[in-house]
Every structure is written in structure tokens, then in C-alpha cells.
Amino acid sequence: MSQTAIRKSDAAAQAPALGASPARRAKLRRLTLTDFRSYERTEIELDGRPVALAGANGAGKTNILEAISLIGPGRGVRTARLDELPRLDGPGGWAVAARLDDGEDERRFGVGVTTSKPDRRVCRIDDTAAAGPGAFSEHLRFLWLTPAQDRLFLEGAGERRRFLDRMALAHDPAHGKISSAFEQAMRQRQRLLDEGGRDDEWLCALEAQMAETGVAVAAGRRHIAAMLAAANVVSGETLFPTADVALQGDLEIALENRKAADVEEDYTAQLKCRRRLDTEAGRALLGPHRSDLLVYHRGKGRLARLCSTGEQKALLIGLVLANAQALAASAGNTPLILLLDEIAAHLDEERRAGLFSILDGLGFQAFMTGTDKSLFTAWGDRAQYFEACDSALHEATLS
Ligand SMILES: Nc1ncnc2c1ncn2[C@@H]1O[C@H](COP(=O)(O)OP(=O)(O)O)[C@@H](O)[C@H]1O
Ligand SMILES: [Mg+2]
Fold first, then answer.
1. pLDDT in tens, the chain (399 residues)
2. Atom 4 (ligand 1): residue with closest C-alpha?
3. Which protein residues touch ligand 1 with a CB less than 6 Å away?
4. 190 C-alpha to center of ligand 2: Å?
5. CB-side neighbour CA atoms (13 Å) of 95
6. Which ligand 1 atom sits nearest the alpha carbon of residue 60?
């Protein structure tokens, strides 16, 4: 049987292999949205089970996932701008609050903006102001898959880099800061080059900084690719196709058989040699900002880009689950949250049941949305179920 074959036996048999003592991890227990998107004020009590959320288009499901995702670094599942988040008929400010609880200790998180400073995100952990949303990563980590990622294999390399970097960020919160430091040094160097590039000392300093952070970004990506490969080996035959990944990028490839310090030195020297080229091009032509993530569908033996839409979706789910599994194994007790927006509708009954079993055993707190209750009935009492209607949530039962 090939790696991609659907196992006809009970998919629940997979769960133990994927599990990582789910009981140890704290869970989000309460979520409060105030003037956020379509929600005026909503409080949701979560009991720690995975959450299924059903409702018609426009009922307010993705808004809930987005609110949760904002208790993390970055701009959330929609990569929204701050000015898109306040409720349209509201006062201008918005807030999302959450309580994390492991049965003994609790943590309170808050994120939002005030009406007086709508362009400044305020973050709080317990009663203390946090420097920024990156601080949440110390307390919980996210993975997600949303319909916006459906075209990942067809779009430009930038989207795939972001996808890869987001996966790396879930493993290592520092990855985001290092990427930003690289981008900043690169922008400053380009500005100097555009202005004539006469300050050699300053250029050398920026290039050294680009090399240090750029090699660290590439190393972080290689780490995640290796984890995905290892997760594939462990899970072996699954309900979802196995994705083999390869990194395309000068630094990523150089790191394959050379020490990081040597790659860094080499990249610094290359940047210096290429000042003229980069000035003419208007951008740095070499570096991790040019890399790509190649994904292969192992069972089909071809690039994801050449697979059907359905195959691509299944492959993406497989990729996210492999990463979730790797993260569950490496993140210790850190609470993990998995947001799966409109995934259920793409799966047949057997794969859906298999996915529920995987999620039960994974150790993540999973949130899944779908347009119809019937998509989730096989989850039964193992999931907490809410119906969304006109941006109000009502708890009900699946069984
Ligand atoms: N800032 C906002 N203020 C008010 N309503 C919004 C805002 N942003 C989005 N909406 C609305 O929220 C509703 C629910 O959206 P969404 O959560 O994406 O629905 P779905 O259940 O299909 O995922 C939509 O009608 C959308 O237009
Ligand atoms: Mg939606």
C-alpha cells in the first residue's frame, strides 16, 4: 500500500501515534469579543474539548477564529490591517480577551485598540502590558489552515515563504523577530545603495547584520523542513497525502553541507561584491527573501502545483497536521491551538472521522468551522459544539 492510500481500518488507530499527553496542556476556557468585526459583545465559555463551529456563510465563524488568532504574533488568520478589525457600527476600539487554564494556574490575555489610539495594538498578559503580540508566544502557539491558503501552490514564492515562516514561528517564537531584523537591515542597505552607497563602513555593518539574521532565518526553515520529514516518517501511512518538502534558496542549500559561520561569511562577502548589481536591480538579489518552498505530493510523485485543487487541499491539510504533530512532540507543555477554517467540507465522511480522531489525540486545542452541523456529527460528545447565527453563538450538542 502506498503512503497516500486511505487506510480502511478504524482511523482512530492513528491517534495514539500522534498524541502527546493532551491532558497536560492548558486550554483556552473563555473568550470575550468586544466590538470586534461583526461582534458587539460575545462571551464564549469553552470546556477544553475541541470546538466545532457551524453556521451559514457570513454567520461569524471566521471572525471567531480570527479573534483567537490575534492572541498571537502577527496579524492573525486574515492578515488583516488594524483598521479592518473594529466593528463597523461600533465606537472604533475593539478588544479580544481570553483566559487560559490548566486546572491549577490561569493566565489572562487581552489584545485590542482603544478609540483614542486606533492604530496602536495594546497587548496585556494578566495585569501587565506586553511590549507587543510577540509576547503571547511564550504562553501559547498557533497553527492554522484557512481558505485563503487554498492557492498557496499556485501563487508566488512570497506566499509560500510566509507559510513556511509561520510554521517555523510556531516552533520558535524568535523566528519572527529574526526575519524582521533581516528585512530591516536589507531595506536600510538598499536605501544607502539607492542614495549612492558611499558609506562603506555603514554598508558593511548592515551586510554583516543581513548575513547573521539571513543565515538564522534559513537555518530555522531547514529545521522545520527536517521536522516535517521526520513527522512524515512517524505517521507513515495516513488518511492525508504525505507532502515532501524541499527548500529552494541559496542560503538554505549552502547550509546543507557547510557550517553556518562559513555560510554567513560567504554571504557577507557576496553582498559586498554585489552592491552594484543590487543597486541596478533596486533590490538585493541574493538572500532568504528570495527562497521558495517546494512541495511534492509523494503518492502522485509530482509537484503540488501540478496537482488538482482537491489534491492540493488534502496535501495542505497533511502538511499542517505533520507540522502539528512535530510541534506537539517538541513544545513541551506549551498550549497549542489549531484553527481549521472550512476544512470539513472538503473531506469525505471517512477522512472527516479520521481527522476528528487525529485532533482528539494531537494535544492541540482545535477549532473547526463548517457551514453545516452534519459535517461534525461524527465527532459526537468528543467536541464542544456551537452554532453561529447573525454573529451570535449558541451552544448545542452534536450527538
Ligand atoms: N469590521 C467589521 N464590522 C462589522 N462586520 C464585519 C466586519 N468585518 C467583517 N464583518 C462581517 O462579519 C460577518 C461574518 O463574517 P465571517 O466571520 O467571515 O463569516 P463566516 O461565518 O462565513 O466565516 C460578515 O457579514 C462580514 O461582512
Ligand atoms: Mg468563514
1. 233 222 323 333 333 333 344 457 899 999 999 999 999 999 999 999 999 999 999 999 999 999 999 999 989 999 999 999 999 999 999 999 999 998 888 999 999 999 999 999 999 999 999 999 999 999 999 999 999 999 999 999 999 999 999 999 999 999 999 999 999 999 999 999 999 988 999 999 999 999 999 999 999 999 999 998 888 765 555 688 999 999 999 999 999 999 999 999 999 999 999 999 999 999 999 999 999 999 999 999 999 999 999 899 999 999 999 999 899 988 888 999 999 999 999 899 999 999 999 999 888 999 999 999 999 999 999 999 999 999 999 999 998
2. 38
3. 37-38, 55, 57-63, 84, 86-88, 388
4. 39
5. 16
6. 17
Strand partners, 395: 386
Q: Which listed ligand is nearest to 33 at the C-alpha?
A: 1
| 243-248/365-370 β-pairing | unpaired
What pTM was estimated for this model as a whole? 0.91
Q: Which three cell numbers stand for residue 33?
A: 469579543
Residue type, 277: L
Return the ligand 1 atom nearest residue 65 CA.
Answer: 17
- How far does the centroid of ligand 1 lie from the alpha carbon of residue 113, in Å? 18
Which triple of cell numbers denotes residue 19?
498524541
Cα 76 to ligand 2 centre (Å): 14
CA of 41 to the centre of ligand 2 (A): 19
Cell of 372: 453545516
Q: How many CB atoms lie within 10 A of CB 301?
A: 10
Q: What is 120-164 written as a DSSP string?
A: S-EEEETTEEESSGGGGGGT-EEEEE-GGGTTTTTS-HHHHHHHH
Give the residue from 222, 189, 219 showing the smallest Cα distance to 203: 189
Nearest-ligand number for the alpha carbon of 54: 1
- Contacts of residue 276, defined as CB under 8 A and 6 or more positions apart, other chains included, come to none
Domains detected in the chain: 9-140+334-399 (3.40.50.300), 174-322 (1.20.1050.90)
> d(Cα 88, Cα 36) in Å, to the nearest integer?
9
| Closest CA to ligand 1's atom 2 | 37
Grid coordinates given for 373: 452541523
